[in-house]
Design goal:
The protein folds into three domains: about 80 residues, Membrane-bound Lytic Murein Transglycosylase D, Chain A, CATH 3.10.350; about 140 residues, L,D-transpeptidase catalytic domain-like (Beta Barrel); about 70 residues, no CATH class. It contains eight helices and 19 strands. The longest helix is centred in the last third of the chain and has 11 residues. The two termini are about 20 Å apart. Belongs to the YkuD family.
Length: about 325
Amino acid sequence: MLSRFPAVTRCLSVAALCVAGPVSALELPLPPPGEDIVGQVQVIKAKYEDTFADLGTTYDLGYSEMVAANPGVDAWLPGAGTDIVLPTRFILPPGPREGIVINLAEYRLYYFPKGRNVVYTFPLGIGREGWGSPVAHTTITAKTPNPTWTPPASIKAEHASEGDPLPNVVPAGPDNPLGPFKFTLGTPGYLIHGSNMKFGIGTRTSHGCFRMFNNNVLEMASMVPVGTSVRIINEAYKFGVSGGKVFLEAHTPLDDKGNPSVVDKHTAVINALLKREDLANNLRVNWDQVRDVVAAEDGLPTEIAVPGTPSLVSNAPLYPEQ
């Protein structure tokens, strides 16, 4: 069994590690047919002034995924020379690779532009406790640059109760919580938009809408047409194939309201695998490795199986107390 700590030792081969400079966006070539993994993990040396929030802005990563990939590292003062794992390798979300796919459990959006063999992926802020983001299949119905914001009555009441009353309309500009651009969704009341608070990206911080870094939402604005499909899913466990091997990527499960969920993880992992009918019937699974991946919830794709004698059902639970 591989040690689950540190994350780099457990999850990454030497070939998967590379030191790279910042990128303006995560535009990644799609893998060949039958494969599911894009990108490569990067490892950098922290500078004295670095924080996870600042590194996330530079590398298109959300706060929660930076914390998950770097257990034990201080998010606000990593320390000069500390190795920082940048989790820029992803198993593509299950289902059709078209339009926009949002996976709540990983606080991340994927955009598959029509007629191009690439995928763009960006971190998101999602709904916080009491304001969960929906699981739905909808479309982009409108695009609005420099939006004004008309706070709904529920949000006005919340702010008023906290001694922070809101105006009836917040004009466009640096203080507007919608940022420089918004996409209206066919699901009433929900938007994809920028933000005047970069520290909320990659966390449960919104009133149900999907927040993006402003440079990311502006990049999307130039690419995504009205009518684009938007599929919102909540998949904590993603399976994928690369180089003839099967990988698992695990995130902290969220419930239907977007809150951390207490679930039977053993059952949840097997159910996620069963959805992949192309994989489930002919695997030799390393169940010890599966347990480590699920326990870590670090969002790093990790090899857990190779084609061979079927081993779908494990006799032992993922955790002894189950």
